[in-house]
Amino acid sequence: xxxxxxxxxxxxxxxxxxxxxxxxxxxxxLLAMSFSLMFPRIIIVDTKRDLSGWNTENYSSKxxxxxxxxxxxxxxxxxxxxxxxxxxxxxxxxxxxxxxxxIVNMRNDDTDCLERLWKTGRGLGIGAWGxxxxxxxxxxxxxxxxxxxxxxxxxMRDDRxxxxxxxxxxxxxxxxKNHSFLYYNSNSEILVKYNNGLNLRID
Length: 203
Known about the structure:
Elements: E1 17-21, H1 28-36, E2 41-46, E3 57-58, H2 63-66, E4 72-76, H3 79-92, E5 96-101, H4 112-120, E6 126-132, H5 141-144, E7 148-151, H6 157-164, E8 181-185, E9 190-195, E10 198-202
Parallel strand pairs: 1-6, 1-7, 2-4, 2-5, 3-4, 5-6
Antiparallel strand pairs: 7-8, 8-9, 9-10
Helix pairs in contact: 3-4
């Protein structure tokens, strides 16, 4: 994947759940950022506080006003602010896409609103995307609810095994290099490997 312009069209809809899994530096964040440009209303939860290039406005006291606009790109880093904001958009049915990077940094004792977002947000017009280095270490609903999977290199077999439970069994034994990735659509049940602009269907 050499540029944002080379990202194929995967027909991701506003209310879809999308999983981006892979080790640090594998390319999952760049891919998520490029896909986010398709949608005018984005909330990015930056748990590592190191995202750049997303052209966002940081969460503040003015955020509530932004949520009424036709377009916004809001970056929130504080976890308490994150939970308050998610509860607000769920209550007000604010159609947007919520992107969490990195899921494993979210507190496990406060996952109720996140689970509601992933499981019921579709009916409210809210999309949910999750990025993680360790899919085995995060609550299972992030994976079980996803329609789209972008699977980059995962060094640990138990992580690949967890993903394979919701995609294809062969994922467990596939080792990816550089910025290659697997794409799986849970509706079509097709698994495709992308490697330097080439793709190969894996049944």
